[in-house]
Specification:
Length: about 110
């Protein structure tokens, strides 16, 4: 009895294949649908990867911009006249010449 029941029930996979084989347009459309769905998945993956790369580059740009600003402040600090004079007097033992230290050279 069990074997008769198996013969009466149609095999769904075979029925689908027979239906697709009978209608070529449906088969072609099914292939096109699968191809386009794979293309959508690929393009979405690529777009997300590019967005992640863009975010990384923007973050790196912001960090470099911040470092550049710190360097500008540091440059301004070291280029101040009072700072230069202080370094000249303390580290290099320089002093302003007095009138007695000056020598005038006349070229004829």
């Amino acid at each position: 009895m069990n074997t008769k029941a198996n013969h009466r029930q149609p095999n769904l996979f075979l029925e689908i294949l027979k239906g697709l084989g009978a209608n070529k347009l449906t088969s072609a459309l099914l292939v096109v649908i699968f191809a386009s769905s794979f293309a959508v998945v690929q393009v979405t993956h690529s777009a997300r990867a590019q967005l992640i790369k863009q975010d990384t580059l923007l973050q790196e740009r912001d960090e470099l911009d911040l470092e550049w600003r710190y360097l500008l402040v540091e440059e301004e600090f070291y280029s101040q006249h009072a700072r230069i004079e202080e370094v000249a007097t303390t580290q290099l033992q320089m002093k302003r010449p007095t009138s007695q230290d000056e020598q005038v050279i006349i070229i004829q």
